[in-house]
C-alpha cells in the first residue's frame, strides 16, 4: 500500500500487550515443532522410562534432555523443559487412549475449536465409531457449548455426513476434527433468548445457502450439453486460457463443471471473508476434481489454485495444524503449476506473452510454504520462503496512482491491476494490453455466438426432418457439431430416434397409431404389425418409422421393440397429475433462485483469480518474518 507515491509502513505494534502475546504464542509453537523434530530424529519416546516413571510422572532424565536441546537451540532451558513436559503429557495421554481403544473400542477424536474461543482450542473427545455423524455433531455441540444446528464438522478434509456412521466415513481413532461455525456471533457473552434465536435463524439461512449452491451448480452443469438457446438459458461453459470454449469428454465434463463451480462459489465466500462457509465449498470442489483424469488436471491451473485456496482457508480459520497434508497440497500445487505453465513459465509465455499476473499465485504459494515451515519448526526454510514472497511482493506492488490513471481512461480497477502486472508497471503498455485483450475477447465472444447459432440452426434442421430435439442435440454432440456426421449417427443408431422432449411420465401416454398411417407403411411394403409398432415408437411419424424399418430389414431393432411394448400399455390418468402443476411452478422458482445465486458469484473477468490487492499478504509476510527474526535474535542473546 502506498500513499502519495511513497511506501507506507506497517505500524509497529510491539508495545501492545496483544502483540506481545501473539509473538510469545508463535515462538512457543515454533519451539514445540522444533523439539518434536529433535525427538523424532533422536528416536526418543517421552512416554517411556527414563522420561516417564511407572506412575506416569515425569522422570529426572527429562531435565537433562531439556538442557541438551536448549543448548542446541540457544534458548532458555526452563522454557524448553516446560514445553517438553507438555509434549510428554500429551504423549502419555495419547498412549493411555490407545490402550483404552484396544480394550473398549472407544476412540479418541482430537477436536479443533474455532479461533475466537478463549479456551484451549485443541480438545479430546471419546466416542464409539458406530454412531452417526449427526450423533457426533450433537455430542460436540453439547460438550463444547455450541448450538448443534449452526456448526459443521470437517474430518479427513471432508464434511461429516450426518446420516452415515463414523466408521462408514473412514473416521478412525486419533483422527482430527475441525469445528466450523456457520455464523460467529459477537454477542456470545449475552446468552439471552433473542441472540440464540437469531443464531439459529442465521444458521438455517446459511445451511439453505449451501444447499442452494449445490442445486444451482447441478442445474447449470446439466444444462451445459442440453441448452438450445444460450441467449435465453444460463448455463456453465468451460474455456481455455484464451477464453475459447473447449470440449471435454462427457464422462468428465459434469464433474469438472461441478468442481469449477464449487471453486468459484468458495472463492466468492473467501472474498467476503466468510471462511467457515467457503471451506465446505472448496472441499467439495476438491472431491469433484478428483473424479477427473490426471491428464486433464495437468493441463489447467484450476486444481493448483484450489489447493492454495484450501490451505489459505485453513490458515485464515486459524486451523492450519488441523490440515495434516498442507505440505502435500502445496507441493501438489507447485508441481501442477510446473506442468501447466512449463519449466520457467515457457508454456505460459508462449500462450499469453507474459507471466506477470500469474506471479500472484507464486507469491501466495511461497507465503503459505513459509508459514507451514515456520509451524513445522523449520526456521531456515521458513525464512527462505517468506523472503521469496517478500521479493515477489515488491515486484508486484502497484502504485495506486497508476491504477487511477488507467481508470481515467475507462478501464476498471481490476483490469488496471492485471494490465500493470502483465506490463511490469508501465501505464502506456498496460493501456494497450487491456484494449487489445478487450478486442480479442469481443472477437472470441462473437465467434462463440456464431458457433452456438449454427448449432441451433442444425438442431432445427434435424427437427424439421422429424427428429426430436433431444435426439438432434445428442447426435450433434457426438458429431462435434457436424450436421452430415450427425445424420450418419442417427441413421446407424435408431435407438436415438425415439428420444422425445416430453417428461418421462408422459412418454408412455400415447394414442394408438392411426390406421391411415399404418396403411401408408403397408402400402410401402412393410408388415402391418411392424408398421404399427414403429409408428407407436415414433409417435405417428411416418418418415422416421419408414427409415427405421428400411434400415433394419423391415423390423424394429430389439431395443426399440421393448420401448414399443412399454408404450402399448397406456396408464390411466392420475388425479394427482393436475395437482402437481401448482407445485411445479414453485420448484421452478426455487431452481431459478439457486441458479441466479451461482451466476452472481461467477466473475465476469476470466482472470479474476489472478487479481489481488495483496494487502493481506503484505501484512502476513511482515508478521511471519518478524516471528522468524525474533527467534534468531533470541538465539543470539542466549
UniProtKB/TrEMBL annotation:
Residues 397-437, 447-493, 512-552 form the UBA domain. Keywords: Coiled coil. Residues 563-585 have a biased composition (Low complexity). GO terms for biological process: proteolysis involved in protein catabolic process; regulation of ubiquitin-dependent protein catabolic process. The gene is NUB1. Residues 586-610 have a biased composition (Acidic residues). InterPro entries: NUB1, NUB1_ubiquitin-like_dom, SASH1/NUB1_homeodomain, TPR-like_helical_dom_sf, UBA, UBA-like_sf, Ubiquitin-like_domsf. Residues 66-93, 186-213 form a coiled coil. Pfam families: SASH1_Homeodomain (PF26285), UBA (PF00627), Ubiquitin_5 (PF18037). The keyword Coiled coil applies. SUPFAM superfamilies: TPR-like (SSF48452), UBA-like (SSF46934), Ubiquitin-like (SSF54236). It comes from Bos indicus (Zebu). The lineage of its organism: Eukaryota, Metazoa, Chordata, Craniata, Vertebrata. Residues 553-610 are annotated as: Disordered. GO terms for cellular component: nucleus. This is NEDD8 ultimate buster 1 isoform X1.
